[in-house]
Amino acid sequence: AQSVSQHNHHVILSEAASLELGCNYSYGGTVNLFWYVQYPGQHLQLLLKYFSGDPLVKGIKGFEAEFIKSKFSFNLRKPSVQWSDTAEYFCAVMSSSASKIIFGSGTRLSIRP
Amino acid sequence: GAGVSQSPSNKVTEKGKDVELRCDPISGHTALYWYRQSLGQGLEFLIYFQGNSAPDKSGLPSDRFSAERTGGSVSTLTIQRTQQEDSAVYLCASSLGGREGETQYFGPGTRLLVL
Q1: Residue B19 in 3-state DSSP?
Q2: If contacts are CB pairs under 8 Å, which of residues 54-83 in chain A contact chain B?
Q3: Distance CA B85, CA B100 (A)
Q4: Residue B104: burial class (beta carbons within 10 Å; 0-12, 13-18, 19+)
Q5: B106, A104: Cβ pair inside 8 Å?
Q6: What is the DSSP string of A4-28?
Q7: CA separation for the pair A76, A22 (Å, rounded)
Q8: Which one of A16, A96, A104, B66 has the largest count of C-beta atoms within 10 Å of its C-beta?
Q9: Closest CA of chain A from B84, distance in Å
Q10: Backbone φ and ψ of A63, nearest 5°
Q11: Closest to A32 (Cβ–Cβ): which among B45, B48, B100?
Q12: Are the C-beta atoms of residues B104 and B1 closer than 8 Å to each other?
């Protein structure tokens, strides 16, 4: 069965620090990968996704993620975080043969101003 | 345009009662999903509707949970004989056609508290 692991439950950073949130998935076939973000009091929204092609994906607000197939990973990065990046971040995977998304347990990011 | 809407936004009920949660997907979206987000946990897939196809119910946790989608648009998730462990935020999402790699758009959720 597919699963998604986010190893960091809560990350605390200062403004301007660099960010990397880990995401690993288990599935042997072709996958689509997503990062969703939920800002306090707001809906879940898509940050970026990998479908095919260039494994380095750029999303909104300066975020990017790299799909490394050999490591079954899709880590999220941002070179310099801002206070407004305080949110919960969810990694998700969808196999190419299914339409339901399997989500990780989420990583809460807190930014100290 | 209008996003996915859900009602009620909050629901408090007593253990043993039935509840109905409603989802209005984005107009024109044929795929609709229900998820559950429990405290401190990720999102758990519940059920998926795509057009007129039979729904994928593989995520429903028990036979107390059911969902329907009338006319290919609005969906209702029903929980019968609610239990305290049903307390969670229930999220609905829709996408254009349920195709590979397609973005799902989420509603604000219904926060359910079972006393």
Answers
A1: strand
A2: none
A3: 33
A4: buried
A5: no
A6: EE---SEEEEETT--EEE--EEE-S
A7: 7
A8: A104
A9: 21
A10: -80, 150
A11: B100
A12: no
CA B106-B111-B114 angle, to 5 degrees, is: 145
Record: contact B99-A100, CB cut-off 8 A: no
Decide if A106 and B42 are in contact by the 8 Å CB cutoff: yes
Output the pLDDT for position B109: 94
For chain A, list residues with pLDDT below 70: 96-99
**For each of chain B's 115 residues, which pLDDT tens digit applies?**
579 999 999 999 999 999 999 999 999 999 999 999 987 677 888 999 988 888 989 889 999 999 999 887 999 999 999 999 999 999 999 988 767 667 889 999 999 999 9
Q: What is the pLDDT of residue B35?
A: 94
Q: Does B57 contact chain A (CB < 8 Å)?
A: no
